[in-house]
Every structure is written in structure tokens, then in C-alpha cells.
Amino acid sequence: MLGIDIGGTGGRAALEPLSGAFGAERVLLDGPPVAITSGGSSALAVTGSLIEEARAALQVRWPDGRIAAVAIGATGVASLVTNPAASLAALSEAAGGSPVALAIDAVTAHLGALAGEPGAVVAVGTGAIALGTDLHEVWRRVGGWGHLYDDRGSGAWIGIEGLKAAIQTHDGITTDASALLSAAESRFGPAPSWPAQLYTRDDRGSVLAGFAADVAGLAAVGDPVAARIMSDAGTLVARTLAAALDPALPRRAAGIGGVFAAGGEFTAAFTAEFARLAPDASLVVGRATPLGGAVRLARLVAAGEVPAGHPPFLWL
């Protein structure tokens, strides 16, 4: 199987024998992050290059092997790719004629976190999106609309909030974000250069999410403004997840993604707010990453257990 995860901070692929246990003998590959231009998302171009790399890796590791199925989870595929279904034939051809499943990243995040069980999952990396689903009848999406007006609590959102606080201290409106200003200047240079650096970039979301690491680091050592931003992010992510708890689904939920690694104020606020909003729901530990979810989807496709697609979430 070939599972592919395309996100704002990079592309990842995993080759895994169909006959082995989930996660056994997995070969990992890396690709570039998604770029967003006037023509839309580069997610499918990144996917194509990873398929080529995977086929080369397959011949090295398993010379007599072939790709039985491909599953792709990609950010923005429903919103920023014109007619995703039209790309399936080309992707299948690139993979040697294998069946292909293309999904929004929330689907593969869900399959990774809950291993196919019904419930709600929020994935928080560069962006933030939640999906409540049983993978058959119920499909409830919340968030994931991009960093300009959504992705509440995501890496890009945290980066933006950090820069907003920093520029206010730079301008003399506040005096409490000097640590964030110093961190931003260390990463991006003098404040007057920030607009030219950020507004013109195709990978703006991932660059903003990169600054989130600085915000989280300052929060961890007690900076009050950074700590407030991380706490607010956790609260917003909890609200996104709670909104994805469809009444037709079990009250089971999980949160996964790189931002959860920050811990501290983010995790504390997330846990507290989710418990307040959904006191009867169980918050479980995610079992696998979105990349693991893509591999799991590839296994389902290879076994013929995904009988039909469900646009705009999943295309076969």
C-alpha cells in the first residue's frame, strides 16, 4: 500500500506491505509543502512526485512488488483543487494502474486517530479541521477554511496572533509583547520587512505556522502574552471539535496534529473547554497520525472495503 499525507508543512508518504501488520516494515518518504497560487493548490503535483519516489523506493526494497492501492489525504483538495475526481486517472496511471482514493485531510486524520470507528476528530497542524463521521452515512465538517478567516487555533492562527501582538508592541500600542517581537525579528528580520516577506509567499500558511513554534516556546517559559495565545488556541480547537460531534454518532472524539505537541496551556485549555462543551463525550488518545490514516485507507481500498466515494470528502 501507498499512503500519502499532503499538508501545509510538507508532504509525507509511506509504503507498507499488504501482507504485513499495520505499521510493519514501513518505508517513509518526504515531499515539499503545499503552495497556494492564483491557480489553486499544488497538492496534486506534490502527490504525483511522491508517487514517483514511492515507485522507485518500492523497486529498491521490494523488487518484485507492485503498488496494490494508493490513498491520499490532502489539505485544501475540496476547496482549492478544481474537479478533484478528474485527477484520479492520472494518479492511478502514475502508480502503475493501482486503484486510488483521494480524500480531504480530515478523512485520513479521522482514520488515523479512531482507526475507522465512528466519532469526531480534529486535526491541528498548519490549519485546523474537524470531521464527525462514521465513514458511511454521516459526514460533518467543521473548520478548515484557511488561515485568512478560519483555521481557529491552528499553527497558522497562532503565528498570526503572535505577529499581531508583536507589531502592536513594535508600534508602541502595547508594551507586553517584547519577547514575541524579538522572536519575530529573529525569524523574519526587521518588522517593516514582514509584509513583503509574508504577503507575497505561496507557502504563507506554513511560514506563519513556523512562527507558532516560537510562540509555544515562549509560552513554555512563562511569557504571559504567548501563554494567552496558546490558551486561546486550545479553547478554539475544542470548540471546533465539539461542533463536529454529530447527534447520530457515538460521543467519541480525539485531537491529533503537530500543535498538540506544544502541551502546556494549549492542551490544558483544549481539555477544559471540550469537557465544558461536551461533558458526556469521551476524549480518547489518537491511535495513529494522518499518514497512518492514509495507509489504513489504502488497505481498505486494496481489500475492496470502500465501495463508493463521497464527494466532497472522498473520491475513488
UniProtKB/TrEMBL annotation:
Annotated SUPFAM superfamilies: Actin-like ATPase domain
Domain ATPase BadF/BadG/BcrA/BcrD type: 2-264
UniProt cross-references to InterPro entries, sorted A to Z: ATPase_BadF, ATPase_NBD, Euk-type_GlcNAc_Kinase
A molecular function (GO) term: kinase activity
Any single Pfam family the record assigns to this protein: BcrAD_BadFG
Keywords, alphabetical: Kinase, Transferase
Domain of life of the native organism: Bacteria
Annotated protein name in UniProt: N-acetylglucosamine kinase
Lineage: Bacteria, Bacillati, Actinomycetota, Actinomycetes, Micrococcales
